[in-house]
Design brief:
The protein is an all-alpha fold. The protein is about 80% helix and about 0% strand. The protein has one domain. The radius of gyration is 20 Å and the shape is globular.
Length: about 200
């Protein structure tokens, strides 16, 4: 199977720069093949970037742990062969679970009046992950890339599932706010316990 890398590049550029134009142009794309190939290629690029980022930003993660938990901690780099194997296994699992995740998204959208087929939702899911694949590995910026993904999902849902903008916003933003609330609760309750355990483990060595 020949992969059109130029087409993948053009799609990625368009979905990041002009998502309205992208989803309008590709909403009538047929089947799963093109979206799956796009997903596979960009997620593999994400693997490469993740491996590079692991070695580049280890000092950053050490600093982050020190800042949050106020302990002396230095991140240890995983051996390259083990790191590559781990990322590749994750890549294969992502290719499989992508169909499942798109299925859950499809059911969720149908509950709220979505009008497209599963293959349309799979394309929506795959293309909306573009910033996650390309930017997630970057410290700080990568922490906010989920918001970019949600923005793409909102735009794509309007075009593909023929929903109003307000409705598309609400069905994504409300769950996000609930998740953020849960994270805050966990942060306030669990982090102090983890900090205590880490401090104890450091001083008992």
């Amino acid at each position: 199977m020949m992969i059109d890398f130029n087409l993948i590049y053009e799609k990625a550029k368009l979905v990041l720069i002009s998502p309205n134009k992208f989803f309008k142009k590709y909403k009538k794309e047929k089947g799963l093949k093109e979206a799956f190939v796009y997903f596979a290629v960009l997620s593999f690029i994400s693997v490469i970037l993740g491996i590079i980022g692991h070695y580049l930003f280890s000092p950053y993660y050490s600093y982050l742990v020190k800042s949050i938990f106020k302990i002396n901690y230095t991140a240890r780099n995983m051996p390259l062969n083990l790191l590559v194997i781990t990322y590749l296994i994750g890549w294969v699992l992502a290719l499989i679970t992508g169909f499942i995740s798109a299925g859950f998204l499809h059911i969720y959208l149908l509950i709220f009046g979505g009008k497209a087929k599963y293959e349309d939702t799979y394309r929506l899911y795959s293309y909306s992950l573009t910033p996650v694949f390309l930017v997630k590995w970057v410290p700080v910026i990568g922490r906010f890339v989920t918001l970019w993904e949600i923005a793409l999902l909102i735009i794509g849902t309007q075009k593909i599932h023929k929903m109003s903008r307000n409705k598309a916003i609400l069905i994504y933003v409300i769950p996000l706010l609930l998740i953020l609330l849960l994270i805050v609760i966990i942060f306030l309750t669990v982090i102090p316990l983890v900090k205590t355990q880490l401090v104890n483990s450091v001083y008992t060595k």
